[in-house]
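JOB MANIFEST
job_type = single_chain_structure
chain_count = 1
residues = 229
[input]
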Amino acid sequence: MDRATTIAFYKAKYLLMYNVTSWCAWAYVTYMVAMSGTKEYAGNYKLIGDYLLLVQSCAILEVFHAMFGLVRSPVATTAMQVSSRLIMVWLVCDAFPMVTSSWAYTGMVVAWGITEIVRYAYYSMNLIGVDNDYYWFVTFCRYHFFYVLYPLGAYSEYKLIQAALEVAKLNPDQAGYATMFRVFTWVWPPAFYIMYTHMQKQRSKFIMSGALDAKEARESGAVAEKKGN
């Protein structure tokens, strides 16, 4: 193999390993939360908080993947999504664990978990080279579930930030946190709009590419039939 082929080979192997590992990690987090049941909101953070902190922190690698051209994802939107989640796990939930006893923490984790399980499964199957006909359901989930999961995740995050803000306002020593959380309450809605419309554009591109492929297939079939006649 020449140098370019060798690099492409190891890049694909690395990305496959990263995506499969990430899928397993998020599947575990989501499973643990699902098994705890909706009556155990207060215990979910103790159950998976540290593990979620680790798993989500490792996602910073995705910014470097985009930055160095390992994937075609835009650097700006990737950095925005990863940084917003790091803010949630480190500056909100880890610094103010008392706010995680509400439904919002569980809602956030469930929204993140299902989103990532679908996303990493989709990426892994693409890297393996599986024909789309064999994982059409994953593709369907990838381009439809976000209509529900993104609003759920963003609203849950917003409620956690608001709760942390209320706690920080009561303590003069946490005035810096209070100011930061106020800024976040202003930033979160437009940031959600950017990410939501980005996914809508991705979905539109996917549907358009599928329509073009179908059109080319029909035209190829028509040409073949004409030649046969």
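[summary]
The chain has eight helices and no strands.
The CA atoms of residues 197 and 203 lie 10 Å apart.
exit_status = 0
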